[in-house]
């Protein structure tokens, strides 16, 4: 049986841990707030009392935490304790610069790290339908394949180590911009006293249909924003991309500013679609 350690059981880490355990993998989990890991016990996940305990005997170690500095602090603890033949699957969205640092930490410890952020929210994570964006040596990827194939419906091998994290922040920027555009579209319908169903039907029936944006349109219309991808994390990821670009982007900077204002207005824990509430206050 493949043994997997999950470090970080927030929204995404817990969904991934539950799914892997349901598929028969031996899953151990650790979280800084221990109650979140303990809550996974009924789902067949074994909570660990420490990072070091979590990784002992693991075939793969997954890190899924919010920021690069948190990943680095965990790595200092788990790299010496994880088996030499294990693969570290670094799935947190931390950007390219942090990924380069983490790769050096792994190399210095004589361990193998796969740059492997995921595309998808908690719902596809629960269902094993994530898209896994992977970069690094093919032989390391193949060793991790039994875990990757359980977690995702598609593994996109995008190049050398570090490229996957750069692809991820660009994908997240595009996704967030598309949600902001859909929020603006829904509010334009209100301003023009139009039933948004007509606009959505045209989008859905033609080549412009985008399932994710159409899903967010439903949340915006209902004014209900369960956190598949929280606005606070969207803001973090937009910042990671801005740090790596060699010159500003007017569009990306505008989206980032709107998301920042929505977070400051108290919507940070809600889904990215909650940016519509900011627009509603400003436009209606």
From TrEMBL:
It comes from the Bacteria. The active site is at residue 168. SUPFAM superfamilies: 6-phosphogluconate dehydrogenase C-terminal domain-like, NAD(P)-binding Rossmann-fold domains. Keywords: NAD, Oxidoreductase. Residues 4-159 form the 6-phosphogluconate dehydrogenase NADP-binding domain. Residues 162-279 form the 3-hydroxyisobutyrate dehydrogenase-like NAD-binding domain. Pfam families: NAD_binding_11 (PF14833), NAD_binding_2 (PF03446). One of its GO terms (molecular function) is NAD binding. InterPro entries: 6-PGluconate_DH-like_C_sf (IPR008927), 6PGD_dom2 (IPR013328), 6PGDH_NADP-bd (IPR006115), HIBADH-like_NADP-bd (IPR029154), HIBADH-related (IPR015815), HIBADH-related_NP60_sf (IPR051265), NAD(P)-bd_dom_sf (IPR036291). Belongs to the HIBADH-related family. This is 3-hydroxyisobutyrate dehydrogenase. It comes from Acrocarpospora corrugata.
């Amino acid at each position: 049986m493949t043994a997997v350690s999950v470090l970080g059981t927030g929204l995404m880490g817990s969904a991934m841990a539950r799914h892997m355990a349901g598929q028969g993998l031996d899953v151990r989990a650790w979280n800084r707030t221990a109650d979140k890991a303990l809550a996974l016990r009924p789902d067949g996940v074994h909570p660990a009392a420490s990072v070091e305990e979590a990784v002992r005997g693991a075939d793969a170690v997954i890190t899924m935490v919010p920021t690069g500095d948190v990943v680095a602090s965990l790595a200092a603890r788990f790299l010496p304790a994880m088996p030499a033949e294990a693969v570290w699957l670094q799935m947190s969205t931390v950007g390219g610069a942090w990924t380069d640092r983490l790769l050096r930490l792994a190399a210095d410890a004589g361990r193998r790290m796969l740059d492997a952020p995921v595309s998808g929210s908690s719902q596809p994570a629960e269902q094993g339908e994530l898209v896994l964006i992977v970069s690094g040596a093919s032989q390391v990827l193949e060793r991790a394949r039994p875990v990757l194939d359980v977690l995702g419906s598609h593994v996109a091998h995008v190049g050398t180590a570090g490229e996957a994290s750069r692809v991820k922040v660009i994908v997240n920027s595009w996704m967030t911009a598309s949600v902001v555009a859909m929020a603006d579209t829904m509010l334009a319908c209100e301003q023009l006293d139009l039933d948004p169903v007509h606009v959505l039907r045209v989008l859905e029936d033609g080549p412009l249909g985008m399932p994710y944006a159409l899903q967010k349109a439903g949340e915006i219309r209902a004014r209900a924003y369960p956190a598949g991808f929280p606005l606070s994390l969207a803001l973090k990821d937009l910042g990671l991309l801005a740090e790596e670009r060699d010159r500003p982007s007017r569009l990306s900077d505008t989206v980032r500013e709107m998301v920042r204002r929505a977070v400051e207005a108290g919507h940070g824990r809600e889904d990215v679609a909650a940016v519509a509430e900011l627009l509603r206050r400003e436009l209606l």
